[in-house]
User: What shape does this take?
Amino acid sequence: MKNRTDILHALRHILLVRLELEDRGLTASDLPESCRLTDPAGLGLDSVEVLDLLVGIEKQFGLRIATIDKAFIDTHCRDLSSLADFVMHAGKPGEGAS
Assistant: This one.
């Protein structure tokens, strides 16, 4: 498994490229670990954007997220830090994650 720094770098890349945040003028330095993902005071991602982000994470890290529901999003998609924690502890590729 990659270290936390590598994971955060990859997550920032997914956000910037897959969700086209670069088109909004954002850069990696605009996305600290404390960056709120779904909160309107942060990035304000909607549910479709969160799903797109999670698909990108599955592809990037070889994970399979078994259940994506409100509880999962509230727990693991609060901010960049909680998302990095999820990826770090999600298990080995192909085993699934919840």
Observations:
- Helices lie at 4-18, 47-61, 70-76, 80-89.
